[in-house]
Amino acid sequence: MHSPTAPRIKKFPGLRQDFAASLVVFLVALPLCVGVAVASGVPAELGLITGIVGGLVTGSMRGSSLQVSGPAAGLSVLVLEAVRSFGLPALGVIVFTAGLVQLAMGALRLGRWFRAISVSVVEGMLAGIGLVIIAGQLYAAAGQEAPASGTAKLAGLPSAVARAASGGEALASLAVGTGTVVLLVVWNRAPRAVRAVPGALAAVVLATLATLLLSLPVSTVRVQGLLDAVRMPSLAEFGGLADVGLLGTALAFALIASAETLFSAAAVDRLHDGPRTGYDKELIAQGTGNTVCGLLGALPMTAVIVRSSANVRAGARTRASRVLHGVWLLLFAALLPAALGLIPLPALAGVLVHAGWKLIPLRTVVELWRGHRGEALILLSTAVSIVVVNMFEGVLIGLALSVAKAAWDASHIRLDVVDHGTGTVRARLSGNATFLRLPKILDSLEALPQDRPVELDLSGLHHLDHACRAALGNWAQRHGAPGTGPVRLTGAEAVPAGS
Predict the structure, then answer these.
(1) Is the pLDDT assigned to residue 9 strictly greater than 60?
(2) Which residues cross the membrane (predicted)?
(3) DSSP SS3 for 145
(4) pLDDT tens digits, residue range 56-111?
(5) d(Cα 44, Cα 221) in Å, to the nearest integer?
(6) Helix (H) or strand (E) holding 220
């Protein structure tokens, strides 16, 4: 006798795994959606709305089959700056415009070009964001208002800690935030059965219980209801696009969210053996999600590596897991909104401090410093620029440094000479021989002895442009004293131009 559910399971072979994975992703996403919204200076419900759209809309579209989208800590810094500069009503216009830009980039098949961005710039961007998040959320953990700029945040931390240590509500708030961070750090060392519960959820729940049982005087999340939080931009607010600053912010949202999404997709693809990401399709899915978020006045979305890796580790097979996680977020926001009002703000700050620390690639910096010091300097410069200036300009500085380094590498050339004092002088050129380095090349070659035979090996050249080819040919013809044999060239076809 066949079970009545057998045909259904056969039709959807991964349904059980996707259902279980969706619950895990929901439990991971819930505190992060709320925490990112609070850190961005907007109502907590807007983070849930973005998570819901990321599941129901973006999650149902093609692109990356197992990647999960929602509000990201990496964009909270940019959102906070935008809300302070243009106001909360303009957020929907900015996010909507960013979504349209992503749709256009996907339609023009520009997705693969994001893979050309230097990894050092992306890692530096994440590191800078992580530092700003940590600095800002330490104030929130102590129940204090954070300064606006990144440097002011860092400079004011000692006095903020001193004020919190003096006692009162600030000390209670700092204790809850510190306890949350400590729990998150030790959670990964707990037994596997315990770690089945996501650390962020466990930390927030335990902090909430401690706050209620001990009647701690700490601030909690403000609740206004899911529908009340939705604010569709008016036509008048779209007139703000005439502001170059607002338009530039929307472009920054689109580029940074797209870069973070596609780099996350590359990382997620390494975690599973399923279908690979279609980068242009993923850009279209993200753009669709962000246009919807913009129309609802919610936070921007991007693919999030924490939720995505949790989805893969939980055994997800298809897109159904991320769609279902959006369903669970919607049900929670609709049926249990009052539960948000019990969550202490310092607990969410602790979750984000931990998330910000994980964005700082300390191991990568050490490895780059040992093997590729130039790339390490680009990473550090990008991170420092984001903290000192702002996120958008910091990324531009990182990109400019990356282009400058690429130009330097493209024109780098080396001359190795073996000269025993007698007999033939053997020289070898390696690298890229371009007109940019031609004066250095000729100066080095002219310094070779003229009274002995010279053999010049060009096989180590990756590139030899026309100007250098002609110059080398002319040098080979005229170099050498009378009675000395001509210069012998090998490699690079050994055919000098202009001879």
Answers:
(1) no
(2) 20-39, 86-108, 120-140, 160-187, 199-218, 238-257, 327-357, 377-404
(3) coil
(4) 999 999 888 899 999 988 788 889 989 999 999 999 999 999 999 999 999 999 88
(5) 7
(6) none
Domain residue spans of the chain: 7-359, 413-494
Q: What is the CA radius of gyration of the chain?
A: 29
- Side chain identity, residue 232: M
Closest CA to 460 of 427, 438, 487: 427
User: Amino acid identity of 24?
Assistant: V
Residue 14 gets which letter from DSSP? T
377 CB contacts (<8 Å, ≥6 apart)?
401
Q: State the sign of the Cα–Cα–Cα–Cα dihedral 160, 166, 170, 171.
A: positive
**Beta strand 425-433 with 413-418: parallel, antiparallel or unpaired?**
antiparallel
Report in angstroms the alpha-carbon separations of 39 from 77, 290, 324, 387: 8, 19, 26, 16
pLDDT digits (tens, 9 = 90+) for 340-351: 899 999 999 999
Burial 444-471 (b: 16+ CB within 10 A, else e): bbeebeeebebebbbebbeebeeebbeb
If one counts every other C-beta atom within 10 angstroms of the C-beta of residue 412, the result is: 15
pLDDT value at position 184? 92
Specify whether the CB–CB gap between 277 and 111 falls below 8 A.
Answer: no
Burial 371-387 (b: 16+ CB within 10 A, else e): eeeebbbbbbbbbbbbb
* Helix (H), strand (E) at residue 302: strand 302-303
413-494 fold:
Transcription Regulator spoIIAA (3.30.750)
Residue 168, Cβ density class (10 Å: 0-12 exposed, 13-18 middle, ≥19 buried)? exposed
